[in-house]
Structure formats: C-alpha cells, structure tokens
Amino acid sequence: MAHQAPEKIGTNQSFGGQQLRYKHQSAVLNCEMTFSIYLPPQVEKGPVPVLYWLSGLTCTDENFVQKAGSQQYAAEHGIAILCPDTSPRGEGVADDPDAAYDMGLGAGFYVDATQQPWASHYQMYSYIVDELPALINAQFPVDANRVSISGHSMGGHGALSIALKNPGRFKSVSAFSPICSPLNCPWGDKTLGNYLGADKSTWAQYDTVALVAEAKEHLPVLVDQGEADNFLDEQLKTPLLIEAANRAGFPMDIRMQPEYDHSYFFIATFIAEHMAFHARALAA
User: Does residue 275 have a pLDDT over 70?
Assistant: First the structure.
C-alpha cells in the first residue's frame, strides 16, 4: 500500500538528534492526524529501533515530547520515539456531548469503536497497530523488526493491551500508571460502553487483566505506579494486574513508587529507567 509522504510541520534539534512533527491524512481514522517522532543522532549510520509512546487522556502528540525529558536517553541508546495523537480530531469528529475530558477528543482509548457516532473515526487500535507503523516504516530510518511500546494512563492501557494482543510484534512493553482493567473502572464503563456498546464481552479484548490470563508470549513488562496517584484506587486498579500476572505465571516488574502521583513529574523521574529497559530488550 503506497503511503503519501507526511508533511513536516515542526523540527527542533535535541541532544544531537531531531525532534520532528508531522501531519498526514489517515484513511483508518478518516481525518488529518499529527504525530511527533524523535530521531536520535545514530540514524546517520542506518536504521534504529523505535519505541512507540502512547499518551493519556487530554494529551496530544506533544505532551510527552515536551515534558518527559526522553530525548536525552533516546539519543544515548540510539532509539527513535514515535508519539501519535490520542484520538481522531477535526471537523465532524464526534466528541463527548458534555465536553467531558474522559471521552471523545483526546480520549480514543486505543480501541476500534463499533458504535455510532464513534465508529466513523474512532479506530485508534487499527491506526496504532497497522496504518501508522506502515507509514513510519516506509518513510523513516527505523528498524521494523526492533519495536517496543510504552505509555501513560490511558496510553499505558493502550501499550499493554496492544502488546499482549500482538505476540511477537514488540520486544518489550512498559507503562506508567496504566488503566489496568477498563472492565472494572468508571473510565472504562463510560468510554467502552459508548465506543463498543453495552455487551461487556466485547470489551475484554482490550482489557489488560483479561488478556494476561490468555497470553501466549511473556515479553518483558515494566510498570511504574505512584502510590500517591489520586486515580489509583478508582480507575487504575494496579492490584488486579498484579493478581492476574501472578495467577498466569507471567513475570512482570510492577513497581509501586511511594509518594509519586499521576503527573509528568513522575514520568520524568523514571523515564531513564524505562528507556534503559527497552534498550536492553531491543538490543537482544
């Protein structure tokens, strides 16, 4: 499938590499999309491995790029970082009728919606798994066989569920403060109820806790969760993931971090360790 080259809309030099921003027309999402990609200095010598970063509710492709401090470590390890947007956007794209932050624009949840008005545009799972990688692999100096994935909150849910649903595709997965079980939290009830409909059996395919029980592959997993995160008990449900991994005999490094909250201060604190974790897996 031929891809129209994306249009560059931003470029910044960073740690010897380039932080770039592009827009392109997405056939899957039926709208124009933006993404950011960091290319480390090592691309001058040839293709580099790539880490997909999925951001959380209300974010765009730029929050992680500007706040996490990841470029320093991406340059050190020679890893590209791709940051897609978190939902379809633009004229005619459905949004939360009450303009709430937890559904609609900025809240694609990395699922393929089946219910209207969402299904026309909200196909984020297919965008992240199929369309965007095909574009990136064709247009940028990345090694399509050395790919890892990470994310925060809604994006942590996206990273974990996508990795578990696509065995063999990723060398490693990590997450900060992930929504571990959309089947068991208010955010999941609202968004998946609207995007996928009332039949909860259709939600399980996107629920990390449910997917762990069926996982055929045990790829390296690192999860950091702040103990002072105000979403922990009601929305994130980390204990359910710990239990599911133990039951399934799936070794995961799930670290509870005292006093840390849900913010980018937390991400920036541990991003160096996450980049090193992925670098080890991508070098293997």
Answer: yes
Q: Are 78 and 17 in contact (CB under 8 A)?
A: no
> What pLDDT is stored for residue 276 in this prediction?
98
Average pLDDT, the chain: 97
Does residue 117 have a cis bond before it (omega within 30 degrees)?
A: yes
pLDDT digit string (tens) for 21-75? 999 999 999 999 999 999 999 999 999 999 999 999 999 999 999 999 999 999 9
Q: Looking at 26, 70, 153, 161, which residue is catalytic?
A: 153
Specify the fold of 7-283. Rossmann fold (3.40.50)
What ranges do the domains of the chain cover?
7-283
C-alpha count within 13 angstroms, C-beta hemisphere, residue 104: 13
Q: What are 262's two structure tokens? A: 């849900």
Q: What is the pLDDT of residues 89-133, one digit of tens each?
A: 999 999 999 999 999 999 999 999 999 999 999 999 999 999 999
pLDDT band at 4 (very low <50, low <70, confident <90, very high): confident
Catalytic residue among 26, 112, 229, 278: 229
Place of tokens 């009830």: 189
- Residue of 24, 77, 157, 262 with catalytic role: 262
Active site residue 177: no
Task: Give the strands of the sheet with 80-84, arranged side by side.
Answer: 7-14, 17-26, 31-39, 80-84, 48-54, 142-152, 173-176, 221-226, 253-257
The question of whether 229 is a catalytic residue gets the answer: yes
User: Shortest CA distance to 181 belongs to which of 201, 211, 217?
Assistant: 211
